[in-house]
């Protein structure tokens, strides 16, 4: 599991930092530069087993990437689990 990584989505570089407030509440801090503005927000793991954005006012691009980020985080959280099945 990585605590920090960088990935490019739709031509933009995103920085992801895993934060563990408690063992039951991991979340990811996400940072990206959009139109020369640094945007920072979080995604938390919910009871349904999905990673969700926790703020309401972000550019649409970021919400459109929520599912892709959720899959990325699932893989980061369970990288050595051979029984893990991606959600479709």
Structure description:
The protein has 88 residues and is an alpha+beta fold. 19% of the residues lie in helices and 41% in strands. Strands 1-2-3-4-5 form a five-stranded antiparallel β-sheet, covered by helices on one side. The protein is globular and about 35 Å long. The chain starts with a strand and ends in an 11-residue tail after the last helix. 10% of the residues are buried. The mean pLDDT is 87.
Rg on CA atoms, Å? 13 Å
Low-pLDDT residue intervals, each spanning 5 or more residues: none
Q: Number of helix segments?
A: 2
Order of helices and strands: EEEEEHH
Summing up helix and strand content along with how strands pair, one would put the structural category as: alpha+beta
Q: What would the principal axes of the Cα set say about the shape?
A: globular
Largest sheet: 5 strands, antiparallel
Beta-strand proportion: 35-45%
Output the strand order for the largest sheet: 1-2-3-4-5
Query: Taking all residues together, what is the mean pLDDT?
Result: 87
Short description, anyone?
With 88 residues, the chain is of the alpha+beta class.
Topology overview:
Elements: E1 4-9, E2 12-20, E3 26-34, E4 37-45, E5 51-53, H1 60-64, H2 66-77
Antiparallel strand pairs: 1-2, 2-3, 3-4, 4-5
